[in-house]
């Protein structure tokens, strides 16, 4: 049902104070529809409006209907209530951050996607599952110009084959398609992917006795529900990292995504802007999430508003049916899967750094086969 004189709400709604009206009442214009057309104007007590702004709160449909004394059925649950610039300037830094975090969650429909389950996650173990993950990575990276065209139409790295790494996929419950993927790499004698740019910074963590793990090779289809599927992946990979004794998560993030990781996922920037030569000189910042005490940090950041409680419960208080058997999966790739992707389908093994090649050969390849077929790596 639409508001009088307005188009139906389809994309967004916003409550904004009418700047020309002063005094004890505030005139609000309700915007909605694809063109953002205005509806009727309603008078609301300025005192009540300031109350919600000061609390950094939202005006619900029910409350707004009470305010305007009309029975309206609206298709969205939340309206954002914003004050004039003077009131916003008076908000504390902490409240502004809460407002920004809450706004970002709702604009991205994160609470909706976490409450109404949209995907099922799993760690890749079968060849077909790795194929789906590597194909999605190629499609998205190629689309944004990070990698050149390849006849194999696959993108993967040596780190995804390490025994303690886990390649995770999120599969749509509606279509069965893989909509997003990411990989967790546990630190080992061959290091982490971000060592290529930030070894000096990651080494500091190691010298402090910490055990970092890296969130890498992220990709998702472009729709908002596929992107939000990464929350399910992040959740299970976070739990896996904890189970392997990791103390920190690191990730190299493109500058345009840093706000999301810092504001929503509570990462902290620890590395300066640098460029990845093997990804068309893509810029990146190194971000870090300290896992010790992470639940307390999330509770402090999110407990002041109800959408935030959904996030807290999702990450820390709710067990999904597949959690147990996913987290107890004992292996990453089988030898035949490694050979298919790194030796037969591509020449990725021959292009590897010698240290990585030797390490992976000791796990997946017979010693005789390794020395006969790859003599240069074997003697280097």
UniProtKB/TrEMBL annotation:
Gene3D superfamilies: 3.40.630.30. Residues 132-289 form the N-acyl amino acid synthase FeeM catalytic core domain. SUPFAM superfamilies: Acyl-CoA N-acyltransferases (Nat). It comes from the Bacteria. InterPro entries: Acyl_CoA_acyltransferase, FeeM_cat. Pfam families: FeeM (PF21926). This is N-acyl amino acid synthase FeeM catalytic core domain-containing protein. It comes from Thermodesulfatator indicus (strain DSM 15286 / JCM 11887 / CIR29812).
């Amino acid at each position: 049902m639409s508001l009088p004189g307005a188009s139906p709400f389809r994309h967004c709604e916003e409550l904004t104070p009418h700047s020309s009206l002063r005094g004890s009442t505030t005139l609000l214009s309700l915007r909605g529809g694809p063109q953002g057309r205005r509806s009727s104007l309603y008078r609301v007590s300025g005192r009540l409006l300031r109350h919600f702004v000061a609390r950094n709160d939202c005006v619900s449909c029910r409350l707004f209907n009470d305010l305007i004394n009309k029975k309206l059925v609206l298709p969205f649950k939340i309206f954002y209530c914003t004050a004039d610039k003077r009131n916003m300037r008076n908000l504390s830094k902490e409240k502004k951050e809460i407002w920004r975090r809450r706004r970002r969650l709702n604009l991205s429909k994160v609470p909706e996607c976490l409450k109404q389950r949209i995907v099922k996650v799993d760690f890749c173990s079968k060849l077909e599952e790795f194929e789906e993950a590597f194909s999605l990575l190629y499609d998205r990276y190629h689309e944004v110009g990070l990698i050149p065209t390849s006849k194999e139409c696959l993108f993967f790295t040596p780190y995804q084959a390490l025994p303690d790494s886990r390649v995770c996929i999120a599969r749509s419950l509606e279509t069965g398609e893989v909509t997003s993927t990411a990989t967790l790499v546990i630190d080992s004698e061959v290091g982490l992917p971000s060592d290529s740019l930030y070894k000096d910074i990651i080494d500091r963590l190691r010298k402090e006795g910490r055990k970092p793990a890296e969130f890498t090779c992220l990709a998702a289809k472009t729709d908002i529900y596929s992107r939000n599927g990464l929350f399910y992946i992040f959740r299970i990979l976070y739990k896996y990292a904890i189970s392997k004794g990791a103390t920190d998560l690191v990730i190299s993030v493109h500058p345009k995504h840093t706000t999301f990781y810092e504001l929503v996922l509570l990462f902290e920037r620890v590395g300066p802007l640098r460029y990845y030569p093997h990804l068309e000189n893509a810029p990146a910042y190194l971000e870090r999430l300290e896992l010790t005490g992470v639940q307390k940090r999330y509770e402090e950041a999110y407990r002041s508003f109800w959408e935030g409680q959904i996030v807290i419960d999702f990450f820390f208080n709710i067990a999904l049916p597949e959690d147990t058997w996913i987290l107890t999966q004992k292996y990453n790739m089988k030898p035949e899967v490694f050979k298919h992707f790194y030796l037969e389908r591509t020449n990725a093994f021959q292009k590897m750094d010698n240290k990585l090649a030797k390490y992976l050969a000791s796990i997946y390849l017979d010693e005789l086969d390794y020395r006969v077929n790859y003599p240069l790596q074997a003697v280097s």
